[in-house]
Design goal:
This protein is of the alpha/beta class and 431 residues long. Helix content is 25%, strand content 23%. The protein has a 9-stranded mixed sheet with strand order 9-6-7-10-8-13-14-15-16. It has a 5-stranded antiparallel sheet with strand order 1-4-3-2-5. It has a two-stranded antiparallel ribbon with strand order 11-12.
């Protein structure tokens, strides 16, 4: 591990400074013992821990390039856990049985894996399955990164936080359900069933999803009375893509719903440089041979290269669907939105929105409008719900400090109901 000393000013130059007051002199935890998790939502992996020490902030992380650091900074949330902290569950890994025989393997051929915490009391027959996210790979180099970083050979445990937490205070609605975290390792949102033998890649996302669900059915999900499929980012996209398949696998008497977090990726035809958004998905579809795995409701009327954009297929989902997203999704803005012609301060603007110039602010506002327009393309259905915020966030449901804590902003202390499943409001609606 490497240790790099950064001042508070330097740290806050890299992260959204809306949490700056927590380190001020107001006394709201500023000089207490504080641990902060720096989460990279592009790769969905914990890079390290920041600790406040002697007036400085120590950032501990595996060595990464300046480019990766700048990309990370645009996609993270600063999560403050003031002691006494609530410790997360550490749940041991489970490898899919006979994974090689089934073809349920990761890019590198390692067995598909998940983490399972057993439900108790009234949650005994209720299940929530979370699909891990972490971007996509679309060529030899990016898939080589995934091959090494998402291999399951060395997995041991996973922290269960946010919507998977067993702490009743943090997660009052689902704390005692059967909770499952499915490891992401195919690089294509759990889609595909092919291989590139020349490069040594296995593209088995669909087989992984199906095999994990089959094992969960054998472990008790076959008797479920309630079940939720959820996921964040690339995992949230997988949640939508597999929503009806998940529902069809469960008993007809079960109440099944899907919750897609930070997954409504937009095409943004009227935004600058649309190919910055169209190209990456088209490349994923081509490299992983996904055409036959895409929603027919989309491919039957549009070019398959567009059929990972939810605005074109979400309307065909029959299972009740709840979409949780920011209209100013920090990942989409940082990774897929670029001014044309270029604006000199755009890189810094994406890292810290308080320094954006008026043209840069307008571009971000244009993205928000385009997001809402794309969402409006999904036909109205009483079985669908949405919770859209305007904070510069990406992932929302998978961390205690965002999901439900004393620091979580609230919307008039309201509670939102998605049919019979309750979702506490945890996010403020403001510009």
């Amino acid at each position: 591990m490497e240790f790099t000393k950064l001042t508070k000013t330097e740290i806050f130059g890299l992260v959204e400074n809306r949490f700056l007051h927590l380190f001020g002199s107001s006394g709201s935890g500023s000089e207490q013992s504080v641990s902060v998790f720096f989460l990279n939502y592009y790769y969905e992996s914990k890079l390290g821990v920041i600790a406040v020490e002697e007036g400085a902030v120590k950032l501990i992380f595996e060595p990464i390039s300046d480019y990766e650091m700048s990309k990370l900074a645009a996609q993270v949330l600063l999560l403050i856990l003031i002691t006494p902290a609530i410790l997360a569950d550490e749940v041991p890994v489970t490898k899919v049985q006979n994974a090689s025989d089934k073809g349920a393997v990761c890019l590198d051929g390692s067995p598909a894996a998940y983490y399972y915490a057993v439900g108790t009391n009234e949650g005994f027959n209720r299940w929530i399955v979370y699909l891990m996210g972490g971007g996509w790979c679309s060529n030899r180099d990016s898939c080589q990164f995934y091959r090494g970083s998402f291999s399951t050979y060395n997995l041991t445990t996973q922290s269960f936080v946010g919507i998977l937490s067993s702490n009743k205070t943090v997660n009052p609605d689902f704390y005692n359900w059967n909770r499952v975290y499915v490891h992401y390792c195919d690089g294509a949102s759990f889609l595909g069933d092919s291989a590139n033998l020349e490069l040594g890649f296995q593209f088995r996302g669909s087989v992984i999803f199906r095999s994990v669900v089959e094992e969960l059915l054998q472990r008790g999900m076959g008797s479920a009375t309630d079940a939720i499929l959820t996921g964040s980012s690339a995992g949230g996209l997988a949640c939508m893509l597999h929503c009806d398949e998940f529902q069809a696998s469960l008993p007809s008497a079960a109440k099944v719903k899907c919750v897609a977090d930070a997954a409504f990726f937009i095409r943004g035809q009227n935004l600058p440089r649309p190919n910055d958004r169209e190209g990456p998905f088209a490349n994923v579809i081509s490299f992983h041979n996904l055409t036959n795995f895409l929603p027919y409701s989309c491919t039957s009327r549009l070019n398959p290269s567009l059929c990972l954009f939810p605005e074109y297929f979400a309307g065909g989902i029959r299972t009740p669907l709840f979409i949780v997203n920011s209209a100013f999704d920090s990942f989409q803005i940082s990774a897929n939105l670029n001014p044309d012609p270029p604006l000199p301060g755009w890189k810094n603007c994406k890292l810290n929105t308080t320094v954006c110039s008026p043209p840069e602010q307008q571009l971000i506002k244009d993205f928000g409008k385009a997001f809402l327009d794309a969402l409006g393309e999904v036909p109205h259905d009483p079985s669908r719900g949405i919770f859209i915020i305007t904070c510069y966030f990406h992932v929302l449901v998978s961390d205690d400090a965002i999901w439900n804590s004393n620091m979580s902003p609230t919307l008039a202390n309201n509670i939102f109901y998605f049919q019979d499943v309750k979702f506490n409001s945890s996010f403020s609606y403001h510009n």
